[in-house]
Amino acid sequence: MSQHRVPTERVAAVLAALAGPLGPWAAEERAEQLRRELLDGDPTVSADQILAVVVSRPALPASIPVTWRDIDDEAAELLAELGEHVEVRALLVRSLHDPALRLVAIQALGQLADPDTAPALAALAASEFRAPILTENEVVYLASALGSVGGADALSGIQDLRRRNWPPEVTREVEIALQALLDQ
Description:
This protein is an all-alpha fold. It folds into two domains: about 1-100; about 115-184, no CATH class. About 70% of the residues lie in helices and about 0% in strands. It is elongated and about 45 Å long. The N and C termini lie far apart (about 40 Å).
């Protein structure tokens, strides 16, 4: 695999194009071309470049009407695909400790649904009970990720999240994840 690096501005533009409307002539084929531009080559290099855009938040093309939330969602989807590689999974687990990357890392790990990541996600949930640092949105995605990865560690993490008083919308997501784990 080549170790090609794509300039940060280009990575941001591709993420914006994938997250935004591709137009009537671009459809599936163009989207796949754009995805390949970011995913081809060394998976760790690709993941690192995507995470660099998430952290740096460079200027986006004015011609594409997207929000950073849209781009973060697209980044998480691509990172989940790259997460099939153990080195990328390790990078995503390390990213759980970086506030600028945490939400995207949680989303990607949840989409990946790899039981091997349950201990790291559960540890984040346990630390949230001891010393709260997560936003409510991060807790919602963390609960969802725990419900997706499954297993005893994930159940322990959900139980840790249940020990705190949350707003109703967060509590609802934690309970949905708990039920998903109990139904496995």
